Amino acid sequence: MLAIVLFSAITLQEQDFAKNLADGRTSYSSGKLADAHFSLEQAILELDMIVGKEILGMLPKDFAEQATNAKEDAVAANVDFVGAIVHREYTTSVLILIS
To answer: What string of pLDDT tens digits covers the 99 residues of the chain?
Structure first.
């Protein structure tokens, strides 16, 4: 059940990525460079979120005999500085990856 929900979420994000990419191309072709820039930034944000969620899925469920605190799992995207920030907490330690 969880796999279906995750697959659906990734599929929706991929659709948003494709839509933003198509919007960027259309805006660029129309000479609307500011709109093209915005659409491409949105596409990059979506791509960062997709990659971040994939990375989160690859992280170990337990680390040094400590269980994952799944409620604290998080992925954030930021165009200005870093791509994606992946956050996973274990029962007594925190692992934060910046890609």
So the answer is: 334 334 444 455 667 889 999 999 999 999 999 999 999 989 988 888 888 999 999 998 888 888 888 888 999 887 567 778 889 888 875 666 676
CB contact at 8 A, 10 and 50: yes
Considering only CA atoms, give the Rg of the chain: 17
Which pTM was predicted? Answer: 0.68
81 phi and psi, to 5 degrees? -125, -60
**C-alpha neighbours within 13 Å on the C-beta side of residue 41:** 11
DSSP 77: E
Joined together, the tokens standing for residue 30 give 């129309």
42/81 Cα distance (integer angstroms): 14
Listed residue (50, 70, 52) closest to 61, CA to CA: 70
Strands 66-67 and 62-63: antiparallel
